[in-house]
């Protein structure tokens, strides 16, 4: 069965990019641009991996990640932050926030796929 | 130089070092040494004269003259040791010895010498020492009693006197009287010296108190003022009498009263010096009045310590305090704090701006690079021709967005650097306005926002930079659309007020919190938290509008209420005039405090940005 990736991303173009890329590599995808909805989807779909944008409307991706990591049932799902916050210190801050990996935008397609594979094969 | 000063100088060299620096003590030492030295010397000088008149002296006479050397020895003793009391006692003993020796040989208590016994306590009186006086009095009385006893029991030797008793008696009384007179003068002189010294001391303190700007006060155990120095009057502008009791405390700033009382009671109880800074109300002198307020506050530093520092007493002591005006220092500190806070805020804004800039550039770049890489790998990813075309379009869209971001940054930095060139020319504002609104009509429709334009047909010509005008309108209107929820309305209106065109852009959107409203339009300022997504954009829109309006010599103001909407008003002079100074944004109508309280949850929406 194909592994499922939940994409949390509020930019439509980037959402399409990640969906197309992952689907081209045989993953199932599901997406949302809203942090609250993301948490509901995680509970409902139990995805194998979450790609998390950090800057989101209403609630930040870091906040959503904390909720996921605070929930014993969801904690095991790896969260990869994919964000345009690429200033000094951003990666540390985001990893401290509980994300298992950090990819800065603009992504490199190769590294992106490689990172996804590292977590869910 | 008079003879007296020469004598005085000679005497001063004889003073013991311990007595040299205390004026009263050295006066006493001088008063002891001088009469003894000169009296003895005079008596010795008279000895040859006596010999010449009387011929060879009797044994008693020789002894008496020899005895006159004793005061010289006593003066020497004092000069060497500085032991004033001992010298006085020895002097009393020497005098008593001489008197007794003469009196016993010349008729006991009836002798002409007996009267000299009176001189012994008189001389001691000059010493200002109770012990010496008591000793001398007892000695004189003892001598007198023993002479009476000797007389009574007839134990006296036969008087060797040759001269008549009456003449000798007269001489004895006269000489004793003279000596007593000398002592009286000495006593008077010493008293005068001590009074003069007292006055000097008092004058010195008075001079200090009058010229010192520091205030000295004494406080009771409960903090009430018992005494306050006259400097308080100049400092606080009220008579000293009105500061006594709780008058001073009543002037202390309410917020500083606990610290003030704590310092006083700590100093009184703890026995250690305490320091406190507090504000105190000052009455403005009548000459400075009429400029708004009748009173203002000074910063005072007060150092207080207990008045009686006895280690044994456990009860609270009275406290003496020194207060000093430190208003200037405090104001400097406050100015420094403000400047530091402003610098820190500017620095934070700049970092925030850079982070935002980087984020806004990276977001479209991600799509551009990602999709183009996918096209490069079209074989492995098995991308169809239709997909390829779609991706090319997406890359193009992202590129366009990126371009607008870059243009915004460039405009902004040009204006920041002050070399954005305004090219004024006459143009009709209405068509420009309508044109801009048409450009944004599509976007408004997408967001389901009503865009209403109200511009009278007869708007006069405006002289200014038409590009800048369009930019102003585009930025304001696209902002308004972006921050308005579905179903809302954006109203753009233009009118003439005096010699100015007034452009108003109102929305029914999310509004801006009071805290953010104060800073909106500040260079690099962008409301909201870094990691929370606001409406997309660079956050430069309103900054650019503000700068463009300022370059036209116009004014921009923002009124807003959370959840109710925002109105931006721009006033541009119809005839272009080079601005003399950059105008600042004016906040006309800050949000209600109640609304401001909820603004944390709203902050992510408060951002103002350039149209994308």
How many helical stretches of chain B?
21
Structural class of chain B: alpha+beta
Q: How can the largest sheet of chain A be summarized?
A: 5 strands, parallel
> What spatial order of strands do you see in the largest sheet of chain B?
7-9-10-13-12-14
Work out the helix count of chain A: 5
DSSP strand tally of chain B: 14
Named CATH topology of chain A? Rossmann fold
Shape of chain B: rod-shaped
First-last Cα distance of chain B: 102 Å
Share of helix of chain B, binned = 55-70%
List segments of chain B where confidence is low: pLDDT < 50 over at least 5 consecutive residues. Answer: 528-534, 581-612
Work out the count of structural domains of chain B: 4
Oligomeric state: heterodimer
- Tell me the name of the CATH homologous superfamily of chain A: Response regulator
Distance between the termini of chain A: 12 Å
Please tell me how large the radius of gyration of chain B is: 52 Å
The pair of chains with the biggest contact is: A-B, 31 and 33 residues
- Decide which structural class fits the backbone of chain A: alpha/beta
Overall 3D shape of chain A:
globular
| CATH-defined architecture of chain A | 3-Layer(aba) Sandwich
Average of the residue pLDDT scores of chain A: 92
EC number (chain B): 2.7.13.3
Transmembrane segments (chain B): 33-53, 59-78, 90-120, 132-153, 165-187
Domain PAS (chain B): 201-271
GO molecular function (chain B): phosphorelay sensor kinase activity
């Amino acid at each position: 069965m194909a592994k499922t990736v939940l994409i949390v991303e509020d930019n439509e173009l980037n959402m399409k990019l990640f969906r197309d890329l992952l689907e081209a590599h045989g993953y199932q995808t599901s997406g949302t641009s809203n942090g609250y909805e993301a948490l509901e989807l995680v509970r409902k779909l139990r995805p194998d991996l979450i790609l998390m944008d950090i800057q989101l409307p209403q609630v930040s991706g870091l906040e959503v990640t904390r909720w996921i990591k605070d929930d014993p049932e969801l904690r095991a799902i790896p969260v990869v932050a994919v964000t345009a916050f690429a200033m000094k210190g951003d990666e540390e801050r985001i990893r401290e926030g509980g994300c298992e990996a950090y990819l800065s935008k603009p992504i490199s397609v190769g590294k992106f796929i490689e990172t996804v594979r590292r977590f869910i094969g | 130089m008079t003879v007296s000063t020469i004598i005085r100088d000679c005497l001063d060299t004889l003073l013991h070092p311990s007595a040299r620096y205390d004026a009263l003590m050295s006066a006493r030492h001088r008063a002891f040494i001088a009469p003894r030295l000169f009296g003895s010397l005079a008596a010795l000088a008279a000895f040859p004269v006596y010999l010449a008149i009387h011929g060879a002296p009797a044994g008693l006479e020789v002894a008496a003259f020899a005895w006159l050397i004793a005061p010289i020895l006593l003066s020497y003793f004092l000069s060497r040791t500085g032991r004033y009391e001992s010298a006085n006692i020895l002097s009393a003993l020497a005098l008593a010895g001489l008197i007794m020796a003469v009196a016993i040989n010349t008729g006991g208590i009836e002798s002409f010498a007996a009267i000299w016994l009176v001189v012994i306590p008189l001389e001691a009186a000059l010493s200002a020492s109770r012990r010496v006086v008591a000793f001398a009095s007892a000695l004189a009385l003892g001598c007198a009693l023993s002479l009476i006893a000797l007389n009574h029991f007839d134990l006296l030797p036969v008087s060797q006197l040759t001269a008549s008793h009456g003449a000798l008696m007269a001489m004895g009384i006269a000489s004793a009287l003279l000596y007593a007179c000398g002592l009286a003068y000495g006593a008077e002189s010493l008293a005068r010296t001590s009074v003069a010294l007292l006055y000097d001391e008092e004058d010195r303190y008075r001079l200090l108190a009058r010229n010192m700007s520091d205030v000295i006060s004494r406080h009771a155990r409960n903090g009430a003022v018992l005494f306050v120095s006259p400097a308080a009057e100049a400092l606080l502008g009220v008579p000293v009498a009105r500061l006594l009791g709780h008058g001073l405390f009543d002037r202390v700033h309410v917020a500083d009263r606990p610290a003030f009382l704590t310092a006083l009671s700590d100093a009184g109880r703890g026995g250690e010096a305490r320091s406190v800074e507090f504000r105190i109300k000052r009455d403005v002198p009548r000459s400075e009045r009429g400029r708004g307020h009748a009173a203002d506050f000074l910063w005072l530093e007060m150092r207080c310590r207990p008045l009686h520092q006895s280690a044994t007493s456990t009860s609270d002591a009275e406290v003496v305090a020194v207060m000093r005006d430190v208003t200037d220092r405090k104001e400097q500190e406050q100015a420094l704090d403000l400047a530091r806070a402003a610098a820190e805020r500017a620095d934070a804004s700049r970092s925030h701006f850079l982070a935002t800039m980087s984020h806004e550039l990276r977001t479209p770049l991600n799509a551009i690079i990602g999709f183009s890489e996918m096209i490069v790998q079209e074989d492995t990813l098995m991308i169809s021709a239709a997909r390829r075309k779609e991706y090319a379009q997406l890359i193009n869209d992202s590129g366009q967005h990126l371009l607008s971001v870059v243009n915004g940054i460039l405009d902004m930095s040009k204006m920041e650097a002050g070399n954005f060139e305004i090219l004024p020319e006459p143009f009709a504002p209405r068509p420009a306005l309508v044109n801009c609104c048409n450009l944004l009509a599509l976007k408004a429709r997408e967001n389901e926002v009503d865009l209403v334009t109200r511009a009278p047909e007869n708007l006069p010509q405006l002289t200014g930079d038409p590009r800048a005008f369009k930019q102003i309108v585009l930025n304001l209107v696209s902002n308004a659309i972006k921050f308005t929820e579905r179903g809302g309305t954006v109203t753009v209106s233009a009118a003439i007020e005096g010699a100015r065109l007034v452009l108003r852009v109102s929305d029914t959107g999310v509004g801006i919190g009071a805290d953010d409203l104060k800073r909106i339009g500040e260079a690099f300022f962008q409301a909201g938290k870094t990691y929370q997504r606001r409406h997309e954009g660079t956050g430069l829109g309103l900054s650019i509008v503000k700068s463009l309006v300022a370059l036209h010599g116009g004014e921009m103001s923002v009124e807003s209420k959370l959840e109710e909407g925002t109105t931006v008003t721009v006033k541009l002079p119809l005839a272009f005039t080079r601005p003399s100074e950059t105008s600042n944004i004016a906040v006309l109508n800050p949000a209600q405090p109640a609304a401001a309280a909820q603004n944390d949850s709203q902050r992510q929406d408060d951002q103002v940005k350039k149209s994308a």
